[in-house]
Amino acid sequence: MSTIRACSRPLRPGSFASSTFRTSTSIQRSGPRKYGTAAASNVVNIVEVGPRDGLQNEKGVIPVSVKSELINRLVDAGALLVEAGSFVSPKWVPQMAGTGEVLQGIRQKPGVHFPVLVPNQKGLENLLELLSTHSNSPVPLTDEIAIFAAASDAFTKANLNLATIAESLARLEPVARAALDKGLRVRGYVSVVVHCPFSGKVDPKVVKDVTAALRNMGCYEVSLGDTVGRARPHEVAEVLEEVKKVVPVNMLAGHFHDTFGTAVANVMTALSHGIRTIDASVGGLGGCPYSPGATGNVATEDVLYALKDSEYSVAGGVNGTIDLDKMVNIGWWISEQLGRESISRAGRGVKARREREKKQ
Ligand SMILES: [Zn+2]
């Protein structure tokens, strides 16, 4: 997840303490997600990351018009928060080329957000330029960006070509501040919160510090990512309990890849530890370029299926939720665009059931 493969010049080390990553200013302008009944709510928010985290890590490159169509279909299925793309150089990530055009092809809907990943100042400048050319539109093309850091120096080095976590945070702080000044919401990601493909097991205390730093930059929510998909439920629990010591749980989200088949179990663990926002990817799109064999995010269909008729309800725009059957159709459709089958287990199960019923 959250990879940009961008080459960037290292910045001078900022004013960070060596053991923690305190930002020089503490910006708290956008509060956490609001729930009807605060922490007691069992309403789960799903952040659909297929069009960005998913497609970015697929081998196939999808045309701009199909990407817009994917997002429109996801909104029609009830998705309320869809990550629409990334403002990163297409030289480094060809899959994300044309994110500006993708945004312009989206049918805007009140209450639906389309965050875009902005890895650096240049990306933010490109986004702000696009927004200024559409400043007369009644609804902005987007009102939210996502920024990301990693919980290991080795992953930071491979992904951002910066030597340390502290350097990457120093570079993100002005990006977050500028976005907040323009009235944008800022969401944070922390990659490799359990295992790093280069340096192994990650210390939960480091995850805690990076998460706190992103929160202090003004992120309304920080998504904790098992980028390589190796985490097990007890490891997820350990990280969450550590991070919760300093960041309220309603400002956290869970982001689990499914390489070792534990993503749905990790989602359920995160929910039982108070997390109410889960990142998921339709059709299980995605992978991780730094971790051979890594699969995509937990499939949206699999999360919807696991939570159906449970103590939890999923927030969405179709009868108050996200429609599982429509999501299954989208998962198959976009997988076919990539020349393969859907890898969502629920998606495959629903399709098999439909075919069986047709024969009867
Ligand atoms: Zn991811």
CATH class: Alpha Beta
Gap between N and C termini, in Å? 42 Å
Average pLDDT works out at: 88
Radius of gyration: 19 Å
Count of β-strands? 11
Number of structural domains: 1
Instruction: Give the overall shape.
Output: globular
Tally the helices.
12
Brief summary:
This protein has 360 residues and is α/β, with parallel strands linked by helices. The protein is built from twelve helices and eleven strands. It has a nine-stranded parallel β-sheet with strand order 2-3-4-5-8-9-10-1-11, with helices on both faces. A two-stranded antiparallel ribbon has the order 6-7.
How are the SSEs ordered, and which strands pair?
Elements: E1 43-48, H1 50-56, H2 64-76, E2 85-86, H3 99-104, E3 116-117, H4 121-133, E4 144-150, H5 153-160, H6 165-181, E5 185-191, E6 195-196, E7 200-201, H7 204-216, E8 221-226, H8 233-243, E9 252-256, H9 263-272, E10 277-280, H10 300-307, E11 313-314, H11 324-337, H12 345-359
Parallel strand pairs: 1-10, 1-11, 2-3, 3-4, 4-5, 5-8, 8-9, 9-10
Antiparallel strand pairs: 6-7
The structure holds zinc ion.
How does this structure look, described?
The protein has helices at residues 50-56, 64-76, 99-104, 121-133, 153-160, 165-181, 204-216, 233-243, 263-272, 300-307, 324-337, 345-359, and strands spanning 43-48, 85-86, 116-117, 144-150, 185-191, 195-196, 200-201, 221-226, 252-256, 277-280, 313-314. It is built from 12 helices and 11 strands. Mean pLDDT is 88; it is low at 1-19, 24-29 and 35-39. The chain has a 9-stranded parallel beta sheet with strand order 2-3-4-5-8-9-10-1-11, sandwiched between helices. A two-stranded antiparallel ribbon has the order 6-7. The chain has 360 residues and is α/β, with parallel strands linked by helices. Helix 9 (263-272) links the parallel strand 9 (252-256) and strand 10 (277-280). Bound molecules: zinc ion. Zinc ion (ZN) binds next to loops. It comes from Pluteus cervinus.
